[in-house]
Amino acid sequence: MLRSLHVEHYVLIDSLEIRFPEGFIVLTGQTGAGKSILLGALSLLMGAKADAAMISDGADSCVVEGEFDGRGDAALEAAVKAEDLDWADGQLLIRRVVSRSGRSRAFLNDEPVSLPVLTALSARLVDIHSQHQTLLLTDRKTQLSMLDFFAGDGELLSAYRQTWRTLQERRAELARVREEAARLKEEQDFLRSRHEMLASAKLREGELEELEAEQQILANAEQIKESLCAAESLFEPETEDRQSLSSTLKEIAAQLEKAGRYIPSLLPLAERTASARVELDDIADELAAVNARTDVSTDRLTEVEDRIGVLYELMRRFSAATPAELIAERDRLAGLLDRCENAAGNMGALEKEVAALEKDLAKQGSALTKARQSAATPFAAEVKSLLKGLELEKAAFLVDLTPVAPGPDGADAVTFRFSATGTAPVELARCASGGELSRIMLCLKALMARWTKMPTLLFDEIDTGVSGSVADKMGAMLSRMGADMQVFAITHLPQVAVRGKAHYLVEKSVAGSGAAVTSIRPLDAEARIQETARLLSGAEITPAALANAKALLKEAQS
Description:
It is built from 18 helices and 15 strands. It has helices at 35-45, 74-82, 115-122, 132-136, 140-151, 154-200, 207-219, 221-235, 245-259, 267-293, 298-317, 323-388, 428-431, 434-452, 468-481, 494-497, 525-537, 543-557; strands at residues 2-10, 13-19, 24-28, 61-69, 91-99, 104-108, 111-113, 126-129, 396-407, 410-419, 426-427, 456-460, 486-490, 502-510, 516-522.
């Protein structure tokens, strides 16, 4: 239940702090006093869309904070703990802050929560019935959801909806696979010819770079060979009167060693000369090996240039910048051809899965239909019984179920039929007046509150279109509901207002700055008589109205 409400800088509410008791609570006030503003603040706390226009002039942000008592609600406790939030023994403080940018932040017991989490949790705390919801009573989907509430088929419906979603996903996937398979089949010959062209080329990474390097050598092989031979001959001269470089360095090292007997500083030079001779011998060996490998072969040059030509032609044909892109295209084409080959198998598996899901859906839909059929008659009887207490003693209320094509909510269409006189009930939207719709909605809300064990229910002018003794009986029904739960009713009817365990007045006044300000205050016994008299007589409160107000309050409270 809602223990208290704190509001700052919300539209016309500058600052408001109010506590609420258990039971049936009424809120009254002049038209335009700000009752809808108060309702909007509570809706914001429950997860309604935030807007910077909600913030009072001159303020940077607005804050709405509500303290709720959720003790004893095991489902709510499980939901809070499932989000890893502090249960705090059921004392839940929910706060919503809206900034000038229009962005909002939400908190539960001072821990940040996302808007979807706030909405889900608050739906277990408060049910707000706004005036437009009475009109939704004529909507088939709304009627179906009310019957489901009464039937208690939530688990069946949840399982059915999950199967429905999975079936739609598999059907969409099957359609995509079929479309792709048809397209690939048309392109299969073309894809295969292009793949074979690339596969037969035996492509490998880095081949083009290697070939171009080899082509550079082969194209200049004669000049390279000439230079290598000249360099090699200088290591090993052909004339007898000249020593090789190796022999010369060996002799130099020997002479330096002899001199080093007398000048020790020459010995390191001898070692360096010996090292240079070893290095030059290695160079000579490598030079000889390169010279031996260097082949002046026009046949190999032609072969290399032909291969390079093949690679460049493939790159042109496939719009590839490198052989690596050709290899990627070859692998992509291979994957597409594999999908062509496997398409039939994939389609077969998906078709079996779709058929199995359709069978499951039909079974679950049948169970859902049976649950609804079993609940339809007792549901109608419950509503009819409550309507009798609201001066619709002869009213007929029926619930018709008709089969339809399976959809996300099952394979049933629900129609509420009503007749105020009890004869020839017709579709609710075609026969019920505004006052009758209000009474029917109150009966349905009373039942739903009982089914869902909702701790707090708020009605915004649920009594629209009724008056006199009917209004008195609606007030009595709301009062009875307040014995089991906390019920708020925004009303203009004195017959309803006097039934409240507590009465709050919403007022609009002008602040010192000249701005209009909305406030709310609880009424004591005397003030309650004055407000009831105003509801009875209007702006001018007459002695007769005061006497009537006292009598109404005394009768209602007794």
